[in-house]
Amino acid sequence: MSHRMGRRGVAGFLEEVPAAWIVITALFLFFAALFSGLNTFEKRQQNETFADQASLFLQDLRGYSNLTYQGEVGVFDVFKVVNLTSSNITYDFHPAYDFRVVITDVSSYPHAWLNQPRIIETGAPPKTLNGLTQGLVTSETTVDIWFPGVPYGEYHTATLMVEIWD
Description:
β7 and β8 form a beta hairpin. The protein contains three helices and ten strands. The protein has about 170 residues and is α+β, with helices and mostly antiparallel strands. It has one domain (about 10-165). The longest helix has about 50 residues, at about 15-60.
C-alpha cells in the first residue's frame, strides 16, 4: 500500500475506491432505469399494435362474405353464422395470432334461431398467470343478423366480439 504524504493530506488507492463504487452504482442504476423505460415503451407499442390488429380483424369480419347477408357490411345471414368455422376464417384471413370470434343475439325477440352465442376459436387458449389472462386483446361492435321467414324475415341485433392472443 503506497501513500503519499504532503501538506494537503494523504492520498492513495483506498480513498478512491468508495468514490469509484458510488460512480459505478450510479451508472448501473441509470442504465437499469433506461433499459426498463425502453422495455416498457416497447411493450406498450406492441400492445397498441396488437389492439389495432384486433380492431382491423373485427372490421374485416363485419364485411366478410362468408358472414354477410347479400354483401351488406354489418348484416349477417343466420345460416352463414351457424355454418362458419375457424377453418374458413383461417383460410381467408391467415391471421398471425390465435383468435376467438363470438356472435351473440342480444335482441328482445321471443324466438331466435341463434339462441346461444356462436363461438369460433382457434389455437390454444390464452395463457393465464395468477388468474389474469396474458396478452389477450378484445374488440367488440354491434351487428345485425338476418333471420328469414317469420313471416317476412327479421333483423336481430347482435354483438360481434373478437379476442386475439399470441
